[in-house]
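sorry for the late reply, my laptop died twice this morning and i had to redo everyting from scratch. anyway the thing you sent over, i finally got around to it. pasting the sequence first so we're on the same page, its 264 residues, then the predicted structure underneath. double check i copied it right bc i was rushing
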Amino acid sequence: MPHSEFWTERTVAWYARAVARSDFAPRVLAVIGPALDECKSALDVGAGCGALALPLARRMGWVTAVEPSAAMARALREAAARAGFGRVTVIEAAWGEVPVERHDLVVCAHVGGLLNADSPFLADAKRLARRLVVLIRDAPRPEDQDKFFYRELYPALLGRPYEHRSHADETLGGLRALGMAPRVTLCEYSSDQPFIDLEEACDFWMTYMGLQGSGPRAYLEGFLRERLLSAGGELIAPFKKTAAVFVWSPAEAQASGAGDALPY
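ok and here's the structure:
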């Protein structure tokens, strides 16, 4: 399913509930460290429903969030309003469709197309950041928990193996080609997915895997009944993730050498 069609009010709500449980933001902000204190404005590209934009808004006076999905952008606006963050500007557009101003911090998390080695965004980030650039990309390791049990469910229901490799090394190569030398840190965090009940959990997997029909649903019902954890009146799909966090100052990038290798 095209990305623009996948994000609906319901899929965004699922994602937002996982974000609310996750320790992603505090762990990433801890990796960035004291340099974040010098930033008074942030540009979050591919901001989603605000996993980083909202925590940054608590620390900064001005956050601009660029998000192409209408459902995600709407959820972010509503969340910012509920939190009383009046200086969060949400731009509903894909990167490159509208001009944006320079900000102290430019951040982009888990937006694969923008973080590829040949993406023009990498050079754009350097140009638009006054003080700091932070890029975040999945860096799954063998010891990480299997994403949503896909390694078992893909062969059983889709007839093919599930493959999810790290593309963080490609991002690092693209940055080095531009003369940037980031500090690279692996960041482990929780991304558990909660559900109200088993029916909702089955809806989730049917949607995410693009399944239809009573057969796959019956299989999922039996499978998930055994795998999901019960906690606080909810069913939980536990999920531990690892991300590579690239941090650098554009002013220092040319003089700081080759940059770190991925710390695998």
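The two ends are 32 Å apart (CA to CA).
thats about all i looked at so far, will dig more tmrw
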